[in-house]
Write a structure and sequence with these properties.
The chain is of the alpha/beta class and 372 residues long. Helices cover 40% and strands 11% of the residues. The chain has one domain: Glycosidases (TIM Barrel, Alpha-Beta Barrel), CATH 3.20.20.80. Helix 3 runs parallel beside helix 6 and helix 9 runs parallel beside helix 10 (330-337). It starts with a helix and ends with a helix.
Length: 372
């Protein structure tokens, strides 16, 4: 009798665990979600032993630019998936080994240290920009990809964490000369002078500096768009970006990171905010994901309607980075990631996720359910 009772309790416990992991009920189909993606490599285990990406509810995969090959693109497309490349814009640190003058300069007039190891590049370094633009052009010309997502397209900083490091840069002679020329700002001739300007929050010089820096990064986006239109015009141009609102951290999105989302909107097809809830200190609050996405929609004037040219496809965290993401939380994470104005979603990241089959099962079950 005790043995039978123990078996019943064991089976009941397993059933309850399954419901906790996958949710008491499967999510309803979400017709507004056109893209169900995976970031961070080829999900090979979903393409083996009779399984297919389409059968698992996956219809898009993001791969880093250096991981893109013709064979991988062909294999994924044969599975019915769209293939997108991630493209590092201004954080290719290896460039500095032969070109130290491309390093950002801080308010002390010295090369800015790499916060938490994240090394950026001065955005006005012409040779570096030419190098990245040619790499972008080659990527589009050589591979039958469906789009390219800009990544690390922000000023020198480490923001992908609960407590970010946001140094002020770049105050090299090249940046200051271009700033003076384009804004007619007097006295902006040294890092020390700029420190005095930036210390006055409402000063005209500080506002001019922020607007000018944002403009520099936006102009990169303009050129990327022009290259894409000329090289592979049917491809999408997306951007992975900081999920903060314009007001958070004293306006750091523009003031520190030089990300002006509204200015970039004419050139971008898809905005992919990165609301990594566990990484950013919201491990027990997956609703933070949909709050950030809702703000982005209001900020950009997007509701997730089919007739809108510009889309929002957030990338959400289901693998561990910083704090762990429990498998039982995955349905909630995906639920909040697929709420309007989002019309697509992708998950971070396959390299870690593939080692956790329970999480993969939770992910694909959700994707299959909303694709019905």
């Amino acid at each position: 009798m005790r043995t039978v009772l123990a078996m019943v309790l064991l089976l009941l416990g397993g059933a309850l665990l399954g419901r906790a992991v996958l949710g008491a009920d499967e999510p309803a189909p979400r017709a507004h979600i056109a893209v169900r993606g995976i970031y961070g490599g080829v999900p090979a285990t979903l393409m083996e032993k009779g399984r297919t990406l389409s059968g698992e509810g996956v219809n898009a995969v993001w791969i880093g630019e250096r991981g893109i090959t013709k064979e991988r693109v062909a294999a994924l497309k044969a599975q019915g998936a769209k293939v997108f490349a991630e493209f590092n814009t201004v954080h290719r640190a290896e460039y500095l080994k032969k070109h130290p003058s491309a390093a950002p300069v801080g308010l002390d007039g010295k090369r800015a240290a790499a916060p938490h190891g994240w090394q950026g590049i001065c955005p006005t370094h012409a040779e570096y920009r030419t190098w990245r633009m040619q790499a972008f052009r080659d990527l589009l010309a050589q591979h039958e990809i469906d789009g390219v997502w800009l990544d690390y397209h922000h000023a020198h900083a480490s923001w992908e964490r609960a407590e970010p490091a946001l140094p002020d840069t770049c105050f090299c002679e090249r940046c200051l000369a271009q700033f003076r020329k384009e804004t007619k700002t007097r006295g902006a001739d040294s890092p020390e002078a700029m420190a005095a300007f930036l210390a006055k929050k409402e000063s005209g010089e500080r506002k001019a500096w922020i607007a000018w820096r944002c403009g520099v990064f936006t102009d990169w986006v303009r050129e990327f768009r022009a290259i894409l239109d000329a090289t592979r015009p049917k491809a999408l141009l997306g951007t992975f970006h900081c999920p903060w609102t314009a007001e958070e951290r004293d306006g750091a999105l523009e003031a520190k990171l030089a990300i002006d989302l509204r200015a970039q909107k004419p050139y971008i097809d898809v905005f992919s905010p990165m609301p990594y809830h566990a990484r950013f200190g919201h491990a027990r609050d997956p609703a933070w994901i949909s709050r950030q996405t809702a703000w982005l929609g209001r900020h950009l004037g997007l509701q997730g309607r089919p007739d809108e040219r510009t889309k929002i496809w957030p990338i959400v965290q289901v693998s561990d980075w910083g704090e762990a993401v429990d498998v039982a939380q995955i349905p909630a994470v995906l639920d909040h990631g697929t709420r309007a104005p989002a019309t697509g979603v992708l998950v971070f990241r396959w390299g870690a996720l593939r080692k956790e089959p329970q999480k993969v099962s939770a992910l694909t079950r959700f994707y299959r359910a909303i694709a019905r």
